[in-house]
Amino acid sequence: MTFIFQKELSHIKNFLRLYASNRYIYLRKYIKSNKKSKIRLLDVGCGVHSPKVIEALFSTKVEYYGIDKIDIKDSLDKKYSRMRFIKIDLEKELEILDKKLKNNFFDFIMMNHVIEHLENGLEVVSVLCKKLKEGGGFYIEYPGVRSLSLPSMKGTLNFCDDPTHKRIYSIQEIGNVLLKNNFRIIKAGVVRNPLMISLIPFRLIESIFYNYSKASIFWDLFGFAEFIYAIKKNNSYKHN
Predict the structure, then answer these.
(1) pLDDT, tens digit, for every residue of 145-165?
(2) Could you tell me the domains of the chain?
């Protein structure tokens, strides 16, 4: 009975992610607008959780590539064997990554809450820009300057709650890197999803039931994160 309940809850959560989680919203829209049967997705700083969500939501639509500083493949079962992973330290081995990844290869790149852990985040973004095809989408999300003024909470509500956070980035500086690399900024701003905010009471109950950190539940309410979404222009594109 408990297994069935957990399975149903997992299905509900995955469905909600399609409409409440910003990065999956933009990925879903990109897939929908793309005529290809499958797109190549690069998930930067993927961790163990993100591949599982992608498999559940987009398994038939995505050829998945993940990057992380730890060995992800050993932490996943055979169900995820077709996914490809690269173990690399983006601060120490960026040149190696540049050589490993083909230019103009990926259709969509996600960099979700990764750049704030890097001193060289802008250089990483610049390298990744080359790896995206013309017409490809680039989604970046990170704690905004507003997070410095939020109260401290276990699980990170204030930027400084996480000792691995190294740098505050801004829409302006990330946007300028993207513009320099021939991207068109589609949308940028504070992450505030009304559906995510409306689900706060239910997520609080879930966090108590499963005993996990509550901080991220309030991110959308308090405007903890910023995001920027851009499309790589064709070389023939001319701005009027």
Answers:
(1) 999 999 999 899 999 999 999
(2) 21-193+216-232 (3.40.50.150)
